[in-house]
Design brief:
729 residues, Immunoglobulin-like, 6% helix, elongated
Length: 729
């Protein structure tokens, strides 16, 4: 049922939606499926409602309905969306202009305004700075306070402002002028210039309740007016904020307008330094109310062309719409614009695409490079490259340039049909940093598992993703009917696979865990260079061939971090003998009742290199016990086995347990450079140094910073490794 439910959730069209509704009804009418009943009630309501609404509202639509791009100063970018007609009649479309819906303006400079009462207006939100802001002192009736410094350069009608004054009559100015208590129109066409009129009227300060604050943030400055009253003083009041953004956007938020506060005697708008240039929102009319936001945007008209500008779509067809952004005349920051499309459908006369242009800093930095298909090496066009809110798309050659300020970023690369890739903590330097990537599609590995000539009926399959000979990912699946296994959703890379019968299989105990290539050790396995789906990765399990019975035995212990249980240990001998056992909970293993002879024993873990240890059993040496192996990050090492070419004896560490300093004695048959390392139980090297040894040499290592516990001394010379266990107190 899990697979089916996941599959169903991917069905998105109308008829599949009806099918889902019917499916939920089925569950409701079958009380034996009680685990699904409560789920189905909610699922049915949500799904049917959403399906019907999708069907009703989308005979024509843009996909996607929102676009964004990052461009440099005085640069351009082209984005695209798809216009679809899923109605039953031909529909005409035209882009009659590049203006926004439900907006005021623009004025001659390019400012426009929109409020939160409109569908696409700003969200009402309030950032209270009463506890953290700087109080404004000494402001009385018909007075100006300031200047106050801003931590940003605030662009206002083409000039960067970084100081401001607060006017008691409902405005913030960028000069020391006092606006009169009698409000006027905007543009003023007078000496009154360079201000933001959030509520230009005869306001007053009631010292009992009125408070004014301001606070600088990284990208904005907020001025907050708490409980401003009308002159000469009333019980009614207005509370508001003015937010000046680094990108030139202005937000006015009206938190509370009490019931008896007169709102029809004020002017709201913005006035430039030019008396003839400004944008008025309202004057002497009832406009503001509690929990309302008003936004002024600069230069919203960054869309310079739309291709095609007019078209007719037949039923069930679609067309790509190409939209060009231009940042000419824009300061660094983010800008928004609605693109309006007129249709011939009466019930859907207008469609809109929301556009956001991010203008990056003029500092020439960022990332550039090529995006290619990991399997074919071909360029990938229209792949998205994104850092935070900044994004660009590759051209037909797979090339991109993403301008950013110098710094360290996480860069995400994506495109439909490919696995998303994120490159973390990579640095953009001036002059751009080259960042080429290859994206992988979604591939699969499949094959059958055979025991002799027959496919096994149940078992386990394991997949190992390899990178430069190391295992970087592990995954597992059940072997299903007719011996098939499959790993899906894989990236292009190198893989090895392994399979074994399950405990419920008739072949369990008679066949060994075997890698693709029909071998027992992972380093001998066949490498699958995955560049597309493959269904012929068949595995023929190696049969168990028991050794002749006798009085001998081989046993030992494996240490593997905190969990040493269930590690497969392979025993092989001439004549095709191959056996397997698994470590117990304490890491011990044993092969009893062995005939005299020569054997090779080793632990088998994918990604861990190991050299099998040779054991000879005879009448004198009937048992080989206390064989000790330790699993490190990339290898499995036998402890206490001296190499005849390099090491004269195994290393000695004293005292043992060690406290602050480990004294280590090395004895070599010939001069060599020895890498001496201390390894924790998880296989991680926590201390290392290299020493030249000729004959016998004593060295010391400072271990006082190591936590108490079990460690291993690892000594390697000319490819030969010796290990010794010790305890740190």
């Amino acid at each position: 049922m899990k697979f089916r439910i996941l599959y169903i959730f991917h069905l998105t069209n109308y008829w599949n939606g009806l099918y889902l509704c019917a499916l939920s009804v089925f569950f409701l009418q079958n009380p034996t499926l009680s685990i699904m009943k409560n789920f189905s009630v909610l699922f049915l309501l949500m799904l049917c409602i959403s399906t019907v609404s999708l069907k009703a509202q989308a005979p024509v639509y843009f996909d996607p309905q929102a676009l964004e791009a990052t461009v440099g100063v005085n640069d351009s970018a082209v984005v695209h969306t798809v216009l679809r007609n899923v109605s039953e009649i031909p529909v005409q479309f035209s882009f009659t202009g590049l203006t926004s819906r439900e907006q005021g303006g623009p004025d001659d400079f390019g400012y426009s305004w929109i409020d939160s009462d409109e569908p696409n207006g700003p969200d009402w939100a309030w950032t209270d700075i009463a506890e953290t802001g700087i109080p404004v002192e000494g402001l009385g009736d018909d007075m100006v306070a300031g200047p106050y410094e801003m931590d940003i350069d605030f662009p206002f009608y083409g000039e960067n402002k970084n100081i401001f004054w607060i006017n008691s009559n409902g405005s913030i100015g960028f000069n020391q002028q006092l606006l009169p208590f009698a409000n006027g129109s905007i543009p003023t066409n007078s000496n009154y210039t360079d201000f933001i009129a959030w509520f230009w009227d005869d306001l007053a300060i009631d010292t009992a309740i009125t408070r004014i604050y301001f606070k600088n943030f990284e990208e904005k400055t907020i001025v907050q007016f708490n409980k401003m009253v009308h002159y000469p003083g009333t019980e009614s009041f207005i509370t508001a904020q003015v937010v000046m953004m680094m990108n030139g956007t202005i937000l006015i938020r009206y938190r509370q307008v009490t019931e008896n506060f007169e709102t029809n005697s004020a002017t709201i708008g913005i006035q430039s330094y030019n008396p003839e240039l400004g944008l008025q929102v309202s004057m002497n009319e009832t406009y503001v109310h509690s929990e309302m936001a008003l936004r002024f945007d600069l230069n919203r008209g960054f869309i310079t062309s739309v291709t095609p500008s007019a078209l007719t779509l037949q039923p069930g067809t679609q067309e790509t719409i190409w939209i060009k952004y231009s940042s000419a005349g824009f300061n660094p920051g983010s800008y928004e614009q609605e693109l309006r499309c007129v249709t011939s459908l009466p019930d859907f006369a207008e469609l809109f695409v929301h556009n956001v242009m991010h203008v990056s800093s003029p500092v020439t930095a960022g990332f550039r490079g090529y995006i290619t298909d990991a399997a074919t090496g071909y360029a990938i066009n229209e792949a998205k490259v994104k850092v935070g809110e900044h994004q660009v798309f590759t051209n037909n050659n797979g090339y991109y340039e993403l301008p950013l300020e110098p710094g360290s970023y996480n860069v995400t690369f994506s495109k439909n049909g490919y696995q998303t890739l994120t490159v973390e903590d990579t640095t953009a330097v001036e002059g751009f940093s080259t960042l080429d990537v290859a994206l992988s599609g979604f591939y699969f590995i499949a094959g059958r598992v055979y025991a002799g000539e027959n496919p096994i009926e149940t078992g386990f399959a394991y997949g190992y993703k390899m990178l430069e000979g190391e295992v970087v990912d592990v995954f597992a699946e059940m072997v299903g009917e007719l011996g098939w296994y499959e790993f899906s959703g894989l990236a292009a890379a190198q893989y090895i696979t392994k399979a074994e019968p399950g405990p419920g299989s008739v072949y369990y105990g008679d066949y060994l865990p075997t890698y693709y290539g029909d071998v027992l050790h992972w380093e001998d396995a066949g490498i699958i260079n995955l560049t597309g789906g493959t269904d012929d990765a068949h595995i023929h399990l190696v049969a168990v061939t028991n050794a002749p019975q006798g009085p001998g035995s081989i046993s030992g212990t494996i240490v593997y971090g905190l969990k040493s249980e269930g590690i497969p240990v392979i025993l092989q001998a001439p004549g095709g003998i191959a056996m397997v056992t698994y470590t117990a909970t304490d890491g011990t293993f044993s092969f009893p009742d062995l005939a005299y002879g020569t054997y090779q024993v080793y632990a088998e873990l994918a990604g861990k290199s190991v050299y099998p240890h040779t054991v000879s059993l005879d009448a004198v040496n009937q048992t080989a016990s206390e064989i000790k192996m330790v699993v490190l990050a990339n290898e499995i090492i036998f402890l206490g086995l001296a190499d005849g070419e390099i090491f004269e004896t195994e290393p000695v560490i004293f005292p043992n347990p060690v406290t602050d300093v480990a004294n280590i004695s090395l004895s070599l048959k010939k001069p060599a450079v020895v890498a001496v390392s201390i390894v924790n139980p998880l296989g991680k090297i926590v201390a290392t140094e290299r020493v030249e040894v000729s004959g016998q040499k004593n060295i010391t290592m400072d271990v006082r910073t190591l936590p108490g516990g079990i460690y291993f001394l690892r000594c390697e010379a000319a490819g030969n490794v010796m290990m010794k266990k010790f305890v740190k107190q």
